[in-house]
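Email to the structure team, subject: Major facilitator superfamily (MFS) profile domain-containing protein model.

Hi all, the expression group asked for a predicted structure before they design truncation constructs. Nothing fancy, just the tokens so they can compare against earlier work. One-line instruction: predict Major facilitator superfamily (MFS) profile domain-containing protein, return tokens.
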Amino acid sequence: MVSVTCVLAAIGVLLPWGLGTTSAPLIVFAILWGMTALSLPGLWSKIITPICKDDPTLPGLVFSIFAMLRGIGNVTAGPISTKLLQTDAFRGAIGAYGTNFGAVLIYTAVTTFFGGVVGAFFPA
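Reply from the structure team: attached below.
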């Protein structure tokens, strides 16, 4: 389930947002992103279960690690996206890729996709 939601979220970034230049594709992106990527913390309990197996002391620790990693992601997102917005590596590309958001789109899709690859190890 984690892999499916991550792949759908990555596709939502690459296709509707990346290729769209009007508001209609952005609405499709927002709906797809909201239904997939933003639902991942709800799956944490399903991911924690196989990690902890029968040890009743581990779920709190693993949940705390997940929350800490999410916090690190939230704190580092600003500086990373700022640097990515300053690059013009994709100037002239089609759709939103040709804007200053091109590098942010690729970065978001790649990291979300690799989250799905890691999620394959935790079937939920």
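The chain has a mean pLDDT of 88. DSSP finds five helices and no strands in the chain. Ping us if the truncation boundaries need rechecking.
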